[in-house]
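testing teh design pipeline on a random one, pls ignore if ur not involved
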């Protein structure tokens, strides 16, 4: 994708339109699935409009984020992004995943990944693709649990849900149940989530009882922290 030679002559306000055009151009090659025969009529009736709406909302969300970066990051260039093959690849990969998802946690993670990939010091290309594949593979609950155990004390402050001060002994399962009461009694689900986070090298969350202080320690790996940083709102836009 090459920027138009006239871009440098555009009024400043037009960069908003260009941000949208940049994202739209990057993902225009991703088709809505074709279904042959009579099934195509059913498919079109049920899915074409929702898929088109989902893609439009995604394009707008990413474009608005790029506009914010341009307004807040000195030297940030939309035109340079249009020539950045790694960025275009990230947009394509994230868009494919976004089109398959409706959960807000995952859509926000994908949008943040695209925005972080556009900034200096972004992870190397292969690492970005691995992280995007993890967002695609993991559930929203995996992401929430990983964020919790990255720093339980900070999570509690951010979510205004302080842990009880009268815990003398505790465990990671108790921390998890207190933070997310909706997971209480779902041992098989939480066990699978914890197992997966360990299997992907994102966190090691031990079972058993320990001191309350020990239960509230960070359990993420360096790889897990890098992953969370990549899918978090960029600091330039007010992220932590």
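output:
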């Amino acid at each position: 994708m090459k920027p138009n030679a006239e871009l440098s002559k555009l009024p400043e306000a037009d960069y908003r339109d260009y941000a949208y055009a940049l994202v739209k151009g990057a993902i225009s090659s991703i088709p809505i699935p074709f279904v042959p025969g009579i099934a195509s009529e059913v498919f079109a009736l049920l899915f074409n409009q929702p898929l088109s709406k989902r893609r439009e909302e995604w394009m707008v969300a990413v474009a608005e984020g790029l506009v914010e970066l341009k307004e807040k990051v000195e030297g940030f260039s939309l035109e340079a992004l249009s020539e950045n093959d790694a960025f275009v690849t990230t947009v394509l990969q994230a868009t494919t995943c976004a089109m398959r998802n409706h959960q807000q946690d995952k859509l926000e993670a994908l949008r943040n990944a695209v925005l972080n990939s556009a900034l200096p010091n972004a992870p190397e290309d292969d690492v970005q693709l691995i992280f995007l594949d993890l967002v695609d593979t993991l559930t929203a609950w995996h992401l929430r649990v990983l964020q919790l155990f990255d720093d339980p004390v900070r999570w509690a402050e951010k979510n205004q849900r302080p842990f009880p001060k009268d815990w003398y002994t505790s465990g990671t399962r108790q921390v998890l149940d207190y933070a997310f009461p909706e997971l209480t009694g779902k041992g098989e689900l939480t066990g699978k989530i914890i197992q997966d986070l360990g299997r992907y090298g994102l966190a090691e969350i031990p079972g058993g009882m320990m001191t309350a202080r020990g239960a509230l320690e960070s359990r993420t790996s360096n790889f897990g922290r890098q992953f969370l940083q990549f899918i978090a709102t960029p600091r330039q836009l007010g992220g932590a």
